[in-house]
Hints:
By secondary structure, this protein is an alpha+beta fold. It folds into 4 domains: about 5-135, no CATH class; about 155-240, Beta-Lactamase, CATH 3.30.450; about 260-370, Beta-Lactamase, CATH 3.30.450.20; about 390-505, PAS domain (Beta-Lactamase, 2-Layer Sandwich), CATH 3.30.450.20. It has helices at about 5-25, 30-40, 70-80, 85-90, 130-150, 170-180, 240-260, 280-285, 290, 300-305, 315-330, 370-390, 410-415, 420-425, 430-435, 445-455, 495-505, and strands at about 50-55, 55-60, 95-100, 105-110, 115-120, 155-160, 165-170, 200-210, 215-225, 230-235, 265-270, 275, 335-340, 345-355, 360-365, 395-400, 405, 460-465, 470-480, 485-490. The strands form 4 sheets. Strands 2-1-5-4-3 form a 5-stranded antiparallel beta sheet. It has a 5-stranded antiparallel beta sheet with strand order 7-6-10-9-8.
Amino acid sequence: xxxxxxxxxxxxxxxxxxxxxxxxxxxxxxxxxxxxxxxxxxxxxxxxxxxxxxxxxxxxxxxxxxxxxxxxxxxxxxxxxxxxxxxxxxxxxxxxxxxxxxxxxxxxxxxxxxxxxxxxxxxxxxxxxxxxxxxxxxxxxxxxxxxxxxxxxxxxxxxxxxxxxxxxxxxxxxxxxxxxxxxxxxxxxxxxxxxxxxxxxxxxxxxxxxxxxxxxxxxxxxxxxxxxxxxxxxxxxxxxxxxxxxxxxxxxxxxxxxxxxxxxxxxxxxxxxxxxxxxxxxxxxxxxxxxxxxxxxxxxxxxxxxxxxxxxxxxxxxxxxxxxxxxxxxxxxxxxxxxxxxxxxxxxxxxxxxxxxxxxxxxxxxxxxxxxxxxxxxxxxxxxxxxxxxxxxxxxxxxxxxxxxxxxxxxxxxxxxxxxxxxxxxxxxxxxxxxxxxxxxxxxxxxxxxxxxxxxxxxxxxxxxxxxxxxxxxxxxxxxxxxxxxxxxxxxxxxxxxxxxxxxxxx
Length: 507
């Protein structure tokens, strides 16, 4: 087992070391002062790296490999970052020569009795210049920068050889291997391919399933060619996938809701062409679905509705075109709402509502039943009004809050009121004041107010009053269901008035 503290530098450093070695070998011959510094750095500054392997153990190596476990495995890791088929180079059956993928290095594996000698050297043997030395310093600085950047990257980055073997990975990739395959597996080389089916090409969304928990993680992956290798990146796409899933569910819910709405819905986009519509719209307009899916304009739709007598009939073509323009302008402001009375006792309420993107939604609601009920209610009111108008007694009805809700012609004649005065905001208090002005003094009106305002023990009662013109009035007050009160006033005959007067004198 290779400790993490050892393997991680091997993964991120040894491959880079061979890259630097290609440039270092170019600068092998320097001035005397540079040569002294180079000698202190050991074998890292020589033209050729030599490794001796005996019995599958690394015996001769660079200073940087001193006192490190599993040296042969780390050598394979370093070689595989620049050369293909690193295992065959370390343990060949015969002499092998190979060129690195970038063409800067060459490796020679010599099979000797009981051992294998590996030589890694640069293919460029030119005499270095001062410019080469500065270029080397720039390469080393850039190497450190790239190494720090890839280590801190929050997304997966890795490089695969032509056969699919990972030859370089970043810290995020190692963490993902440890998460899915265990910490031990992330410390052995070669690392597993987390995305074995991934190829070069356009970005692709791939999921990884945790075998222990069954949780599924999504990644947005992209592969770019780098020579004969492929550099892959994988970004966490869980948030995007979750948002898309919620959007699909929300869209399905809206679609199902719109499909079940009894109100017809038709949406015109910014160009005023019909986009989505629901089945209720098809049913209400009697238009075939195939016709509606042809991206009709608003003018075409209204024209077709006119043909089928499903829209109010215009007086002339000019007024019809003007009504279309007004309809569109009103819908853009969210103020369009009209009631369309159609043949066959059908009535539609049409409402236009604007949307932020310039679209307009039209709602078609069948209110035929509501209008029929309203007409029936109005007819009942007219009938009841005609009935009470035909009665000789003066009748008035007050609501629980004291407002007058109905009276007849005899009532208005008796108290000398117009039809508007009888209902325009008149209350029980206003009515008793009018009665008081037109009758001789009597406590009846005060008692009536007490009777009306009382909540307990309300029972019908009668009283008499005398009009200022001398007519005797028989008054009756009856509580009705719902808290309303009925008051009737009947002018008595002369005999009845004399009899009531005798009763009052006797009392």
